[in-house]
Amino acid sequence: MRINVYSDKFSGTLSAAEVLKTVTSVFKDVDIQANYFPVTDGGEHSTQILKHYNMQTEMITMTRDFIGNWIPVEYLNVDNDIYFESASLIGVNNTSDHPFNLDTSALAEVIPNIDVLSLGGSRTVDGGVGLMSSLGIEFYREENIITNPKPRDFKDITAVKIADSFAKLELRVLTDTSIPLLGSNSAIATYGPQKGLNKKDIKYLEEQLERIYDILSLELGIPLDPFKKDTGAAGGLSFALGEIFGCELISGSEYFLEKTNLLKKIKQSEITIVCEGKFDKSSLSGKVIGEILKHATGDIYFLGGQYDYVDDYQFTGIFECGPKGLKHPKEELRNTTKKLAKQISI
Prior knowledge:
Layout: E1 3-7, H1 16-29, E2 35-38, H2 46-52, E3 56-64, E4 70-78, E5 81-85, H3 87-90, E6 116-118, H4 129-134, E7 137-141, E8 144-146, E9 159-162, E10 172-175, H5 187-195, H6 199-220, H7 233-244, E11 248-251, H8 252-259, H9 263-268, E12 271-279, H10 288-295, E13 299-307, E14 317-320, H11 324-327, H12 329-345
């Protein structure tokens, strides 16, 4: 019997590699043979996961992240394209600072050197305004320019100007979610609480971003739509890159499955086990686990921290660690995996 286990990271607790190591240990103890695959949709740790599939390092350089720290960042060669993970400079693990004090301008230094930029796992929620301000779009408070505007400054923006240095970008951008930036199912409302935003912050940010984009639309002379799908990745950075800079937006999940040739393996499996920190409606909105589920056949099991969907979806069984998994992730994952192993062995 062919059993495939796919794991994304458990945000805030376990990496995909740590999850698979635990599952492997339990299955080995009870003589269950399986194949193990770390997976990503282009977000946090995507560089390390792609290296697992023999993607080679192109170079490593010291670069300032969004709080000004010099850190080593890695560029990959993926089919002769230079790949860069945005989370390495603007990621959730870089700082605990409030997102209103952060912006995306740090990416301006690396963008000229790459072909593919992966989005996801960011702590930023600036809608790409910080990056815009570093690439030829000037934001003003009355007659005074605001350098690297952050969300805390958005209420003060009254005008924008397009500098001579502004230019479109020839860049492919991988998105880790298809959720729109604004609207009834906004990325700000969905992912904002994970980044430290409360309800008041979310309302302020959505109102200010919509207002600023209206100003930008008039200045650029083009319609801008932050309510359409694929605009919500990395706190709206995908909106700026796609709508304003003309980048090609690509599903990070589809890109990953194509480059690693995993699609064939998914379809051939008799039992599929998907591992994720939390399974909810966002898991089916461009995330890699949702993409795997589209192609999986046979019995399908969920193994993870929390299951928070409206029904059982298409799973044969659901095994979640629950609240204890946050305090003792490896121990609880091991206990939960033992329960799954018993059902598979029946």
